[in-house]
C-alpha cells in the first residue's frame, strides 16, 4: 500500500499555514481499552472492569527533510502538538512518546499517544 500524507502542527498553531505536511508516510494505529483486573481472594477468580477510556498510539515512519525535522523537534520539546488522523478524518491532540531521526538517510519514526476519556 502506498504511503499517506501525514499532517502535524504545534499546539499554538491556529491556521492552515501552521500544518507541516509529510508526504508518503507509513502510519500505524493501535487502540487499546483501559481495563482493571481485580483478583478476588477466596472467590471465584477475578473481575475485569472497563474504565471507559482508550489510548491510541500512532506510529509514523517516512522521510523528513532536516528543516522539517527541526520544526518537529521544537514541537517535541515544547508541548502537545495536533495531528490529523487520516483514518477518522479528525484533528487529534497528542504527545510524543518517542522520536527517531537518521540524518544521513532522513528516515524518521515518531510514536505519538492520544488519550481519550
Which features characterize this protein?
7 strands, 117 residues, Elongation Factor Tu (Ef-tu), domain 3, 62% strand, 7-stranded antiparallel sheet, mainly beta
Brief write-up:
The protein has one helix at 66-78; strands at 4-9, 20-40, 45-63, 82-85, 90-93, 95-102, 107-116. It has 117 residues and is mainly beta. The protein has a single domain (4-116), classed as Elongation Factor Tu (Ef-tu), domain 3, CATH 2.40.30.
Question: Secondary-structure blueprint of this entry?
Answer:
Elements: E1 4-9, E2 20-40, E3 45-63, H1 66-78, E4 82-85, E5 90-93, E6 95-102, E7 107-116
Antiparallel strand pairs: 1-2, 1-4, 2-3, 3-7, 4-5, 6-7
Q: Can you give a write-up of this model?
A:
- This protein is mostly beta strands and 117 residues long.
- 11% of the residues lie in helices and 62% in strands.
- The protein has one helix at residues 66-78; strands at residues 4-9, 20-40, 45-63, 82-85, 90-93, 95-102, 107-116.
- It has a 7-stranded antiparallel beta sheet with strand order 5-4-1-2-3-7-6, covered by helices on one side.
- Strand 2 (20-40) and strand 3 form a beta hairpin.
Distance between the termini: 32 Å
**Major β-sheet, in short?**
7 strands, antiparallel
Q: Under the CATH scheme, which class?
A: Mainly Beta
Task: Identify the strand order in the major beta sheet.
Answer: 5-4-1-2-3-7-6
Using the alpha-carbon principal axes, give the shape: elongated
Mean pLDDT rating:
89
The number of distinct structural domains comes to 1
- CATH architectural label: Beta Barrel
Strand coverage percent: over 45%
Query: Can you give the helix content as a percent range?
Result: 10-25%
What is the strand tally?
A: 7
Give the structural class.
mainly beta
Elements, N to C (H/E): EEEHEEEE
Low-confidence stretches: none
Tally of helical runs: 1
CATH topology: Elongation Factor Tu (Ef-tu), domain 3
Oligomer, anyone?
A: single chain
Rg from alpha-carbon coordinates: 18 Å
